[in-house]
Amino acid sequence: MTETWQLTDAGVLRLPSGRRVRGRGLRRPIPDGPEPTYGVYLLGGRPPEVPWESHWLRWPDFRLPADGAEARDVLHAAWARAGDEGERVEIACGGGRGRTGTALACLAVLDGVPAGRAVEFVRRGYDRRAVETPWQRRYVRRFPAA
């Protein structure tokens, strides 16, 4: 089992189950500390290469995922890897707020946070400006927990 993120590491969100995931903006330097073992990159175009396993989820800025079914599968897999697999999972977009916050809120829903409170949970634990648009908030409210 891999050592998980520390709560003091930049951008780390602790989910109610104890799972830890890191959110970040790709336009900023990579934070100090251990590298991810798995990354999910939410961008309209192909992300830069990284030395760890990763998945690119096509998700244009200020929008929603291009493929909802793929997004559900990828986020379920990221949630599982952060828990059962004990991996250091990173979720990132360009700025680290809108798409990243939305994805983190979806992970919170998967972790048992009621969908109507997931955005507030992420804003409290990750970034107070996370989940930037009304349609991103609606996406989280409608995200299936199972």
Structural class label: alpha/beta
Give the DSSP E fraction (strand runs of 2 or more residues): 15-25%
Beta strand count = 5
Largest sheet: 5 strands, mixed
- Indicate the radius of gyration in whole angstroms: 13 Å
H-E order: EEEEHEHHH
> Which regions have little confidence, pLDDT < 50, spanning 5+ residues?
none
Shape: globular
Query: Average pLDDT, to the nearest integer?
Result: 94
Sheet with the most strands: spatial strand order: 1-2-5-3-4
Question: Cα distance, first to last residue?
Answer: 25 Å
| Count of helix runs | 4
Question: How would you sum up this structure, described in words?
Answer:
The protein is of the alpha/beta class and 146 residues long. It has helices at residues 68-83, 98-110, 118-125, 134-142; strands at residues 12-14, 20-25, 38-43, 53-58, 89-93. The protein has a five-stranded mixed beta sheet with strand order 1-2-5-3-4, with helices on one face. Helix 2 packs parallel to helix 4 (134-142). The longest helix has 16 residues, at 68-83. The relative contact order is 0.20.
Topology diagram in text:
Blueprint: E1 12-14, E2 20-25, E3 38-43, E4 53-58, H1 68-83, E5 89-93, H2 98-110, H3 118-125, H4 134-142
Parallel strand pairs: 2-5, 3-4, 3-5
Antiparallel strand pairs: 1-2
Helix pairs in contact: 1-2, 2-3, 2-4
